[in-house]
Design brief:
mainly alpha; Glutathione S-transferase Yfyf (Class Pi), Chain A, domain 2; 2 domains
């Protein structure tokens, strides 16, 4: 909208400049024509004929050439200068238009690829729904399961099995973590096109974060779970919680960027 108004203003300005130059050339030409006509007429108060007048002034070609030549040269230089200036402006406008077109195409490519990442993340969240729930349930009951098996002779081996099952469930979420992290980085990249910022932030929250809302991780303050056993589920819940905490600011900043172009 603003770019169109600027282009319209520039075009109108150049048209006015061209009209002014044309009027100037016309005035100069008119003055020269009048001057030539006057010089070929009888002088006021005298009865000299035209031949007598030119006899005093010299050859007509020399008189008119000497009088009008410099003026025409100056006018010609002005016309050439104006033409070159307009050509340079046109070239510059064309370069700007090409650059803007490349930027628009790149912005649209980035938008479409980010939409694809969000869509893939949404599909993976739905696909991993059962694994997420099972993993969270294993975390919730982990220490109780350990305590239950401590009285057994093979408690140590059972503990390793419990830990291994938890780690196995967590490993299943690796692809989801990768997609979710990629989507978050794309959406909140400072260089993401401002025109699409609010749209893509809204879509990320609606199609990714909202799907993670039912999931939460319950852990005691003191836990026997090793960080490497639940690295992926930790990352998923952290992204969800961080996104929810910053949701208002994210929407506000995206709205401001999208509307202050």
């Amino acid at each position: 909208m603003i770019n169109n108004e600027n282009e319209k203003y520039t075009t109108e300005k150049r048209a006015k400049e061209a009209i002014k130059l044309g009027i100037g050339v016309a005035i100069v030409g008119l003055v020269l024509a009048i001057g030539a006509a006057v010089m070929t007429q009888k002088t006021f108060g005298q009865q000299d004929d035209t031949n007598a007048l030119f006899a005093r002034l010299g050859q007509i070609g020399d008189v008119l050439g000497g009088a009008t030549g410099p003026v025409f040269n100056i006018v010609g230089m002005l016309v050439v200068y104006y033409s070159l200036r307009e050509q340079l402006r046109a070239n510059n406008d064309q370069n700007i238009a090409i650059a803007n077109e490349f930027k628009r195409a790149n912005d649209e490519d980035l938008l479409n690829s980010t939409k694809e990442v969000i869509e893939a993340t949404k599909s993976e969240i739905k696909l991993q729904d059962l694994n997420i729930k099972n993993c969270l349930e294993r975390i919730r009951t982990f220490e109780d399961d350990i305590e239950t098996n401590r009285a057994l002779e093979y408690a140590e081996s059972e503990e390793e099995k419990i830990r291994a099952r938890l780690a196995s469930l967590d490993d299943e979420l690796a692809e989801l973590v990768g997609l979710l992290t990629l989507a978050q980085n794309r959406v909140f990249n400072p260089n993401f096109p401002a025109a699409y910022k609010f749209y893509i932030v809204t879509r990320f929250y609606r199609e990714c974060i909202d799907l993670l809302m039912p999931y939460m991780k319950i852990q005691r303050v003191v836990t026997m779970i090793l960080p490497e056993d639940i690295g992926n589920i930790d990352r998923i819940i952290s992204i969800k919680n961080d996104s929810l905490r910053d949701k208002y600011d994210a929407y506000r900043k995206a709205w401001d960027l999208s509307n202050n172009l």
